[in-house]
Amino acid sequence: MENFDLNYSLKKTKRKTLGIEVNHQGEVIVTAPDYIPQSKIDEVLAKRMKWIQEKVAEKKNNLNTQPKRNYVSGEALYLFGRQYYLKVIETNYENVEIDHNRITFYIREGESAKRVISEYLLNEFKAMIFHMADECLETFSKKYSISTKPKFKVRKMAKRWGSCTKDGIINLNPMLVAASVECIEYVIFHELTHLLHDDHDDEFFRTLKSVCPKFKELKERLEKETVLFE
Ligand SMILES: [Zn+2]
């Protein structure tokens, strides 16, 4: 077999088929059933190498176009899918004003703009999630019965927008504050679906589609929107 150089993480699952996924950071994640031998995994990877390489290149290219944030005036700031121009004014009080496409932070002299702005974004996100999560949960539980009411938490994660634990804790990445409301809803529905299905199998996507019909389009949009924000 052709020798290839590929870094990937391997996740063993109960699913019956082997899955290959390239996340937004260009990392390759292979999910495979416990019993599949390494030689079989290598074979499938070799077969799909062209696709994998293209995907990795595409995601890395997206990441490279991401501007570095310095939290200074003139920079773009993304809030719920909208772009604003940032203005930072040093004064002797703290305040935030939003006017059309401009967002102005009044900060105390010597205070870190990064700290103030990050804290503001985090609070905005928490406030939004507080309502949205309940609405999505209501929609979801009208269709499907779930044994325990999930608990939503905001948690920084390096590689994922959301996660769902076995005991029903749904974590949402605060970076989602840059994404539009529809895309955040998609993430919530995706994680709610994990309450019923562990793996991304056909059943999973059928359930997800029934509560979030545009999930495919939203997933793509989400990657584009959030790449602009880190
Ligand atoms: Zn998932």
Notes on the protein architecture:
It is a single chain. The chain is an alpha/beta fold. The chain has two domains: 8-64, no CATH class; 114-226, Metalloproteases ("zincins"), catalytic domain (Zincin-like). It is built from six helices and ten strands; from the N terminus they run βββααββββαβββααα. It has helices spanning 38-47, 49-64, 113-143, 181-193, 202-211, 215-226; strands spanning 8-13, 19-22, 28-33, 76-79, 82-91, 95-99, 102-108, 151-154, 162-164, 169-172. Strands 4-5-7-6 form a four-stranded mixed beta sheet, covered by helices on one side. Strand 2 and strand 3 form a beta hairpin. Helix 3 (113-143) packs across helix 4 (181-193) and helix 4 (181-193) crosses helix 6 (215-226). The chain is globular and about 65 Å long. It binds zinc ion. Zinc ion (ZN) binds at residues 190, 194, 200.
Keywords:
4-stranded mixed sheet; Zincin-like; alpha/beta; 230 residues; 6 helices; binds zinc ion; 3-stranded mixed sheet
In brief:
By secondary structure, the protein is α/β, with parallel strands linked by helices. Helices cover 40% and strands 23% of the residues.
